[in-house]
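[step 3/7] fold_predict: job queued, chain A
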Amino acid sequence: MTPVALLEINDLHVSFSTADGVVQAVRGLSLSVDAGKTLGIVGESGSGKSVSTQTITGLTRGALISGEALFEGRDLLAMSQKQLRSVRGNKIGMIFQDPLSSLHPYYRVGWQIVEMIRAHDKETSKAAARTRAIDLLRLVGIPQPETRIDDFPHQFSGGMRQRAMIAMAMALNPILLIADEPTTALDVTVQAQVLQVMKRLQDEFGTAIVLITHDLGVIAEFADDVVVMYAGAAMEKAPRREIFVANHHPYTEGLLFSLPAYGGERRRLNPIPGQPPSLINLPNGCKFNPRCAYAFDQCRSEEPPLTQVGADPRHLSSCWLSHTMAQRVELRAKMLSGVPVSSESAG
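[step 4/7] structure written:
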């Protein structure tokens, strides 16, 4: 019997009505996260990474939403705000991109952690919650937590603020942690420290993590499975190893080849040409086709479904190129040598 995923999102659509038209922020996203595992969601800005997770936790009010998000068998999208508040913080912790805007500047860091604990556990006294907050700050590596607990957010460095956010997110030992670009704007050493804190907490408590990032280096180090998003939809899904050594979708390939050291010797950056499309006026066919060096006629007229690549049923790609990996590797080699792609050679 196949084990049930901790979180399973099925055919999620999220759109926003604006004066300029309907923004199709998320289009038919499906994914799953198992207990104790890390799912990485990667893609350019505007690909729908953050909107998808904010939607399932009730943070996109006013959006037009369809689909389902099953968490422990219950549909988060069908819950009332009161029911969602009992889940957020208690069972689902969240770390946002900018801790300075997530922490209230007028209140001490410790007070904010204490209030979060007591909001979900009315029986916990202030003294007990404060002791718990000190323990959490120590756990995430804040030095002298007994005194730093009474500091204001501006008295913390960027890395310390992010650690404080992790402490707050983990205060009630949630079984799922959503980390929305938690290492953005941090230097590489602090970034590594923050990721190590998250990994240690995961190992200790068995927490599942959804890690949203545009940094493929973080994905390579931290994720078990990866979803590559573009224009509101999943372009490729696979275990981490396949994404880096046997990727199929041209968008995934483009992200990897834009890294300065990917593929061996250091070379000039090779960015993906063009810009992501407008989510109000999406192109016909595959949404990546205007930027794709492999695109042929079918790509411009029909949007490909997510289908299995190779022998691994976990590896899915939304692309009309051959799903036989040997043929895909051969086609990639021809493209890199300057041979143009035709529909006959691509299929």
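[step 5/7] annotate
The mean pLDDT is 90.
The two ends are 36 Å apart (CA to CA).
exit 0
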